[in-house]
Amino acid sequence: MLGVEYDKTPRYLQAMKHVSILVPESSVMQAIADPKYLFTTANQFLSVSGRDPLFEVQLVGLKKEVKLNDGAFSVHPDRLVQEVKQTDLVFIPALFGDMKHAVAQNQALVPWILKQYNQGAEVASLCVGAFLLASTGLLDGKKCSTHWGFTSEFREMYPDVELVEGSIVTEENRIYSSGGANSYWNLLLYLLEKYTDRETAILASKYFAIDIDRDSQAAFAMFKGQKKHGDIEIRNAQVFIEENIQEKIRLEDLADRVSIGRRTFERRFKKATHNTVTEYIQRVKVEAAKRSFETTRKNISEVMYEVGYTDSKAFREIFKRITGLTPIEYRNKYNKIPMTT
Fold it and tell me: Cα separation of 318 and 286, whole Å?
């Protein structure tokens, strides 16, 4: 987790922080409700401890009523964007459905987001809210996190953004982003600590039952490979890797199999998949190992051999680097079936 340098000014001297939570079309209702819940609850914590509430929280939208989930829910913003002249923190919640469509639906919010940022506001995207944030251009050349399941689509739409896979929280030049789904709670706690103090953030983490210092979503990620590209030879190599996980696959053999020179093959493979050949092979093998740990009674050695590894130390190191957990930790976390050893 990034280190938080919070404002050490005494609470009674700190100015009220204006928190604006956007209510976009095609957004996830919970990603609107949760930041409001957290920061209003933080005000209650501060009041109970004898301090003044710090946050003025408001929902901000383009319309007085925004219907979500095909009309199943309605959200009524407190303010229209044109009524909010200046704010301190802008939250862009997760979007829902087709990302290109959702981003296009909400382009009218972009000028307001840019105006607030240029006036000194901080801007934070939650999960796939990163797609709308990236459409502003504010992320160009900067680091960003999003849901692990949308990394390929994000790279395709925003090639100028440096996507940090597996990260829970990124921060750069007053711009924040979070990993997938409930990972955004870690960003909310991170910002709460920045604006208040560690004590308040820990209290909130206990109240909401959130692990305050989780810094990776790697253990939750499922590697599906990147096959949405037009390089047929590289796709054939990917299929061969995925169908032969038990084998020790050499780069030279893959290049020969698809009749491409080694250097050209390496370059084209990285361009198409955003992984080196070695990284791709490792991730495919580890993904297969994860599935085996989750659904079978096989022990660590059996799974290791099943996915083509004979060196237990190397297997453990690669597995932990990719998932953030050792093979034993992963098995214990996701499989409650009694093991054979």
Answer: 8
pLDDT confidence of 3, banded at 50, 70, 90?
very low
Q: Where are the beta strands (DSSP E) in 115-196?
A: 122-125, 143-144, 162-163, 169-172, 175-178
**What is the amino acid identity at position 298?**
K
pLDDT digits (tens, 9 = 90+) for 94-143: 999 999 999 999 999 999 999 999 999 999 999 999 999 999 999 999 98
Amino acid 115: pLDDT:
97
DSSP of 20-63, one letter per residue?
A: EEE--TTB-HHHHHHHHHHHHHHHHHHHHTT----EEEEEEESS
Mean pLDDT over 252-263 rounds to 93
Place of tokens 């932990």: 320
pTM of the model: 0.67
Structural domains in the chain plus CATH codes: 11-219 (3.40.50.880), 232-334 (1.10.10.60)
* Measured CA distances, 104 to 25, 99, 132, 188, 299 (Å): 10, 8, 9, 26, 49
Q: Which of 227, 57, 225, 28 is nearest to 132 (CA)?
A: 28
